[in-house]
Amino acid sequence: MRLLEVAKHRLRSGWLLWTAALIVFVGGGVVQAAQPLKIVTTTTIVQDFIRQVAGDRAEVWSLLRPGMDPHAHQAVPADLVALTQADGIFVHGAGLDAWADRMVAGRKAPVFVVTEGIDAPHDTHAHDGHAHDDHAHDGHAHDGHTHDDHSHDGHSHGGDPHFWYDPNLVRHYIERIEAALVALDPEGSSVYRANAAAYLEELGSLDRWIRARVNEIPVERRKLVTNHDSFSYFARQYGFEVIGSVIPGFNPEAEPSARQLAQLVRAVQELGVAAIFTETTFNPRLAEAVARDAGGGVRVVSLYTDSLSGSDGPASTYLDYMRFNVNSIVDALK
User: Using CB atoms within 10 A of its CB, is residue 14 exposed (0-12), middle (13-18) or buried (19+)?
Assistant: First the structure.
């Protein structure tokens, strides 16, 4: 009875919510349920990876919401609150989210770079439809953290940070996330390992499905023109030729010159490109102008690129995102 009175008092004062003092009776013993980890990440894609591995043992906040460009970010108060309360912070790295360096500097939570040590090919440009801006996003080291105290290496791997377009490279993300979660929460290690193993199996199935779908496209039609330079790993893995991009380089906020656009129009015409793939997060007007100037019925097809869709959209998880994009590419080119 005395315990019940104490519990009621704490509930009234708000303590019960903060301590999560849920009483569970197991075999005559009393166990206090663990609070979920509070995890902050930079992108919706990495957020989904963490959710797949952590399951219900973590609450994952993404600094970027669906439809937002990961190359730039303006913090809102809720982001700062989430960072203050975080048990762990996961950044993508490789220059994609260098804006996060300043936000996470000095935080108590350890910072994990999920692409750290990734083994990706360097020669990722198959063909240049126009001059590319080969300058990557310079990163800065995370100072004062106990884990992965490394910079976002903006110049590694040819500068292209979009590793996740190749599901085989995503395996590295999952392994890094699993190890980080085990370090943060050793009691959940069996859950993290089982979930990671299951997700790696799904990535293998996804890879096989993509290959089967791409085989529906005649080899001579496997030519990609994209909104910005982001599909190099996908192209290399699945046998596409990257003709060029509407926006030069890896940052979709860059501005192409008239000369660059004219070069791309000529490449589209000369190589018989069937479609230009733009992005749901950016205005397609430049891509539409290139397609119009190229003539010949060149289609403009929108893909999910640097962000997942909302929960009610067709690309709310990474697996759905890849299936949506591959179906769109195949249907446009075959």
Answer: exposed
Q: Which two tokens stand for residue 161?
A: 């940070």
User: Whole-angstrom Cα distance, residue 53 to residue 55?
Assistant: 6
In CATH terms, 37-122+133-206 corresponds, of 3.30.70.2760, 3.40.630.30, 3.30.1490.20, 3.40.50.1980, to 3.40.50.1980
Fold of 217-333: Rossmann fold (3.40.50)
Give the residue extent of every domain in the chain.
2-32, 37-122+133-206, 217-333
Cα 125 to Cα 2, 250, 295, 308: the distances in Å are 71, 12, 25, 25
Nearest to 256 by CA among 95, 74, 159, 129: 129
Q: State phi, psi for 215 to the nearest 5 degrees.
A: -65, -15
Q: Per residue of the chain (334 residues), what is the pLDDT tens digit? A: 444 444 444 434 433 333 333 333 333 333 334 799 999 999 999 999 999 999 999 999 999 999 888 877 889 999 999 999 999 999 999 999 999 999 999 999 999 999 999 977 654 444 443 433 333 333 333 333 333 333 333 333 448 899 999 999 999 999 999 999 999 999 999 999 999 999 999 999 999 999 999 999 999 999 999 988 889 999 999 999 999 999 876 665 667 889 999 999 999 999 999 999 999 888 889 999 999 999 889 999 999 999 999 999 999 999 999 999 999 999 999 9
C-alpha 240 chain-centroid distance: 21
Torsions phi, psi for 180 (to 5 deg)? -65, -45
Instruction: State if pTM tops 0.90.
Output: no
Q: Side chain identity at 216, as an amino acid letter?
A: E
* C-alpha neighbours within 13 Å on the C-beta side of residue 146: 8
Q: The tokens of 192 are what?
A: 């993290």
User: End-to-end alpha-carbon separation of the chain, Å?
Assistant: 72
Q: Is 167 exposed, middle or buried (0-12, 13-18, 19+ CB in 10 A)?
A: buried
